[in-house]
Amino acid sequence: MSNTRECLQLLQLVTNAELKESPVYVPMHPFEELNEQEVKHIDSGLSPSEQVQQAINCLPLPSQKIVNGLKPSFRRWTIMDYSKAYSSGEITPCMVAEQLVTAIRESSSPPMDMAFFINYDAEDILRQAKESTRRYERGEPISALDGVPIAIKDEIDCRPYPTTGGTKWLHKFRSCKGDACCVMRLRSCGAVIIGKTNMHELGAGTSGINPHYGATRNPYNPGMISGGSSSGSAAVVAAGLCPVALGVDGGGSVRMPAALCGVVGFKPTFGRVPHSGVLPLNWTVGMVGVLAGTIEDAFIVYAAINGPLPSHETSAIPLPKVYFPLLQSTNSVSNVILARYGEWFSDCGDDIRTCCSQALHQLSEKFGWKTVDVTIPDIESMRLAHYLTIGSECTAGLSSYLEKLDNAESGWDLRVALCVYGSFSGEEYIKAQKLRSRQMQFHRNIFTKADVIVTPTVGVTAYPIFDDALKTGELDYINGAALVRYQIAGNFLGLPAVTVPVGYDKNGLPIGLQFIGRPWSEPTLIHIAYAMQTLCVSKYRKPQVFYDLLQKD
Known about the structure:
Blueprint: H1 2-15, E1 39-42, H2 48-57, H3 79-88, H4 93-108, E2 117-119, H5 122-137, E3 149-153, H6 170-173, H7 181-188, E4 192-197, E5 209-210, E6 214-215, E7 217-218, E8 221-225, H8 231-238, E9 244-249, H9 255-261, E10 264-267, E11 287-292, H10 295-305, E12 322-325, E13 337-340, H11 342-345, H12 350-367, E14 370-373, H13 379-397, H14 399-402, H15 412-422, H16 426-446, E15 452-456, H17 467-472, H18 477-484, H19 488-492, E16 497-504, E17 510-517, H20 522-536
Helix pairs in contact: 1-13, 2-10, 4-5, 8-9, 13-15, 13-16
Protein name: Amidase domain-containing protein
Family: Belongs to the amidase family.
GO molecular function: hydrolase activity, acting on carbon-nitrogen (but not peptide) bonds, in linear amides
């Protein structure tokens, strides 16, 4: 029934649409100076480790993080906590790695079965940690990321692991020949790569329930979903196994699970981070993103992985300049204008609507920021055009592999998705790109009136994992539509976006607030997210499943 409804809507709003706009096939925006407040220009040509140091120089001092005299009742250990503990000799990367391997094994086994990882290699983790420990012993750490554990979504190439994309078959046809560009940059900073995290099969769903590798369970309530498709990356950060993980966001796949698991999810502007070494599932809507316990940690890893694209990904447009936000500035950004589409904003659960509205009120009270009412036309048409685009790109990118696929090797939800994807025509794809052009203009107009668009991150909080879905996968149109409701502009239009935890529902499940920015406005987004985080951090709660790898509790 749900797929029939989807197809009818697609026919009405995309296939039969009369569109005068020229199609836009790739949402690559020309760079323009935005004259953002409290930012620092970063010279081109810096190494990833040098960019990390530049980001650290922008961070606030610890004393600046206490707001209204309130210290957080719970906080996850940050990149700087690890770096300072290693530099002081209080603990070593080897000691952390040993605890980490034990924690991964425990969480992967009965009775927990959290299904955080598809693949991890204890010997490889310990080898990297020993090398990092020796660097600290010599007083020569590469950067603040040296020895810090970071997990990688299994959609991103990362040796010594195969890249499965959450399937049981893709790695048999497509071998992983080396690290993706983003992983290489993290390694060059000394990060310890701890394995490949679980994901919804081929990224074709929002729940994070994988019939082959298990349903990634939410650390705040293991009976609930973690969200998808970067399910494992969100959950390992929430559970304290690492301060940061990489995901890929093609339709909210970083921001949705981040919101459901109570962590930060940051998706940069399309083209800001190289996509080389990422599975070709969504090349004009997907972007490597960062999941982190804090916005500062998301910023540090963003600093490491952003930068000029490899030569084979070059574009005719000039490379964008890089600016970092000066979070340590005593002057918070002023006169920020937030755009809110009231009817759309309120199309979510009662607890989410109340919590997100209160968070907006806090921003207004504390910083004097204003909210303006806007209307975004044809939101449902945009969602369907994005669905048609991501589906078409998935089948085109994997066509040579899909020809060899035995359907019995896939979950039922992926089989249905591939059938729908395969039904899209070239004419429909072009019409979807015309809708992309139209929506770009709509959003361009909004950004003449406001700095960011603000929405709840998702329309529902985490819902239960049902036993029958564990073996087959899950297609839940109602919950899936609610989860993806606020995600599409970030992907289809190539806009940067970030979600920040702002509270909990009546069952103690996390709620996120999302900010969507104009192209290349990452510094302003990080400033706004940091301001939001400072107002909410004193109320953050410890998950049911949590590991203290620095043993400070």
